[in-house]
Design a protein that fits this description.
Blueprint (H helix, E strand, L loop, with lengths): L25 H16 L12 H9 L14 E11 L2 E11 L11
Antiparallel strand pairs: 1-2
Length: 111
């Protein structure tokens, strides 16, 4: 059609699928699927970058701190995103995105 990217699309990246098999009762299978889906679909990824001023320079520039959760989230809640944002000129705002893992009619004991 003449509207493509005008290059050959031969990807050399190998794809390695992951298969998981959960065997349980029908009542528990929904719970297992919902609890494991975020970890399977969105695995954690490590990222690295160069620090031109070294670790001490980076700490001096950005003043990192940690304030972890006091307790676990409920089992039906998945933490999608947790980041600091600059809202209205303030650097101390936190943006959280949470996901409820079940529909209204599913798993009422976990809601």
């Amino acid at each position: 059609d003449g509207q493509g990217v005008n290059e050959v699309l031969n990807e050399t990246v190998a794809i390695a699928p992951v298969f998981r098999l959960f065997l349980d009762s029908p009542a528990n299978s929904s719970l297992l699927r919902h609890r494991h889906a975020p970890m399977l679909e969105y695995p954690s990824a490590l990222s690295f970058a160069a620090a031109p001023k070294g670790a001490a320079g980076w700490v001096a520039d950005y003043a990192p701190s940690l304030s972890a959760q006091a307790q676990d989230l409920p089992r039906a809640i998945h933490l999608l995103d947790w980041q600091l944002v600059n809202a209205e000129g303030k650097n101390n705002a936190t943006f959280l995105r949470l996901q409820h893992l079940f529909e209204i009619h599913e798993e009422t004991s976990m809601a």
